[in-house]
Specification:
With 100 residues, the chain is α+β, with helices and mostly antiparallel strands. The chain has one domain (2-97). It is built from two helices and five strands. The chain has helices at residues 2-20, 24-28; strands at 53-59, 66-72, 78-84, 89-90, 95-97. Strands 1, 2, 3, 4 and 5 form a five-stranded antiparallel beta sheet that branches. A hairpin with a 4-residue loop joins strand 3 (78-84) and strand 4. It starts with a helix and ends with a strand.
Length: 100
Amino acid sequence: MRKALLTAFLVLFMGLLATSCADIDAEEDAATGPLVRDTTVTLTDAIPAEFGDLVAVTTTEIYPDFAQLWFQKEDKSIVTVFLNYKRGTIEKHPLVIPRS
């Protein structure tokens, strides 16, 4: 009887764990503000020189494996590239912040 109860509890617990997981990539695609990722540019293993000079590197506790690389283009617009230094990858679409 105890073994059956423990098994039922474990199955229920595992089911709750599986349904509470969230996909990080799904959160990334849910941008609703005026600033969105530039999907016309696809980064793979290099950062284009036309992004300009690197002006800052930041990190956040929310995404501890990522660093944000901030570049200033010739027209003074800002380009942010997201680097996952734990996996050694670059997110494929940068964030572009226009300046007026």
